[in-house]
Amino acid sequence: MKKFALISVFDKTDVGFFAKKLIDLDYTITSTGGTAKALESEDIPFVPIQEITGNPESFDGRMKTISFQIESGILYDRTNKKHLKEAEDLNILPIDIVVCNLYPFEKTISKENVNLDEAVENIDVGGPTMVRAAAKNFKNVLIVVNPKDYKEIEQKLENNNIDDVFRKKLAAKAFAHLSFYDSQIATYLGGELFPEEITIPGRKLTDLRYGENPHQRGAVYVKPGFDSSLKNLDKKWGRELSLINVNDINAGLESVRLFRNPTAAVIKHNSPSGIALGENAKEALNRAIEADPESAFGGIIVLNEPMTLDSAKVIGSFKEEKRGNIDIVAIPEIDDDALEYLTRVRKTMGIYTFGKIPKSLDPVNIKWIDGGFILQTADIDVDKGFEKWKIVTKKTPTQKQMQQMEIAWKFITRIKSNSVIIVDKDLPMTRGIGSGQTSRVRSTKIALEQAGKFGKDAILASDSFFPFPDSIQAAGKAGITAVVQQGGSINDQASIDEADKNDITMVFTGRRAFWH
């Protein structure tokens, strides 16, 4: 009896090569639609699908492969005598290999101004039906959804080395392929942020050097449909990435993307140790390191501007003058001379580019919990609401103070809570960061201590309200002249009174800025 392989793919990478190999192995190819045309263009013989189904392609291609003959040829159990007899009686041809991947729904809905009708036309029906049938019957049928598997399958077929373990592996890939595909359709059609049931699609970007610790494994996945900078990470030099490295690069991107000005962030343990703006990347980076050079040791640098030789030399100076090492540099682009220079600064430093930082953001983010996850709307509109800020003290902020408070508020939205930060009175840079503390008083003390002399006349920002006046009292003693905080505590008046007592101007944002 002839051995049949059904090939119907949207991704036609190497499909001709694979079809020829199957023919060499005595398989008869049947195909349809665009795949049939591709095979025909390479003079690869095949049986048109309608010769098996007995029906023409109809309804603008909506009906091609779905038929009793095709699904039966895939589904019947070759080890079941009753099935074998029925297949013979019904003249069902055995389809032993199904090569199929699906219409480009992901690509379609990512286009600008795509309408519902166009999206619906790119919902594959016949393909998933064949894939699911072949995957269910994996003990009898090979299901192939990824062109990257062609070569391995060809070699195993040649060596008669197809076992149940390998068949099961291909079936699992097929069901994952279907789930990935269907989850995008459900999200697009449903339009709900928090549906009753949800599957979150992810495509593997890369394996990691390790997870949080060297004994843990890890890999990075990205959701389809979002132009993430992390998707475009390109290694130029140095070490491979660990989970901590990727988390820190992401934290840096979250920080610098809030600003149009050249901005630099130095990240340690998923939170900035210094953020700064400048007239150029060199100035911004200098300031970000200067904000806390001790913590910058072993940190990750992220810029929203390309790295030139001038800005690269800031890292060289940090090593020479402070004996400070940087683990990872992540930037949109890097000049050749800057790259060559940095490879001499530290051989193991990882240097990565990520291209242009996209404006659009995923409207939801995920917080993992034991056995599940939490979805929440993302805090992505931090620019909005400045006009609603309320001055609550007798002293009114100057225009410069208000400008610095707005910068400080943007900074603190991307610093781990509980957080209190000190921003320079004149320069757009942090001078002290107290983050990740369980006590807001302790966060205040850390930030003020780190700022030192730069606390005089500086800006203090808190990501939530002060429930007691003790932090404002400490700020007054350090010379702070302006405070921006959420407000909303039942004890606000005590903090306002303390600010007035210390001649501090204070603004309430009416909005919390936690970043866990």
Quick recap:
With 516 residues, the chain is of the alpha/beta class.
Describe the protein:
The protein has a six-stranded mixed sheet with strand order 8-13-12-11-9-10, sandwiched between helices. The chain has a six-stranded mixed sheet with strand order 16-21-20-19-17-18, sandwiched between helices. It has a five-stranded parallel sheet with strand order 3-2-1-4-5, with helices on both faces. The chain starts with a strand and ends in an 8-residue tail after the last strand. Helix 1 (15-24) links the parallel strand 1 and strand 2. The chain is 38% helix and 19% strand. It folds into three domains: 3-190, Methylglyoxal synthase-like domain (Rossmann fold), CATH 3.40.50; 203-222 and 232-353, AICAR transformylase, duplication domain (Cytidine Deaminase, domain 2, 3-Layer(aba) Sandwich), CATH 3.40.140.20; 386-508, Cytidine Deaminase, domain 2 (3-Layer(aba) Sandwich). It has helices at residues 15-24, 33-41, 49-53, 68-75, 81-89, 105-109, 116-121, 126-136, 150-158, 164-190, 243-256, 281-290, 293-296, 309-322, 336-345, 399-412, 440-451, 470-478, 492-501, and strands spanning 3-9, 27-31, 47-48, 95-101, 142-144, 203-207, 219-222, 234-237, 263-268, 271-277, 299-303, 326-331, 350-353, 364-369, 372-377, 390-391, 420-423, 430-434, 459-462, 482-485, 505-508. With 516 residues, it is α/β, with parallel strands linked by helices.
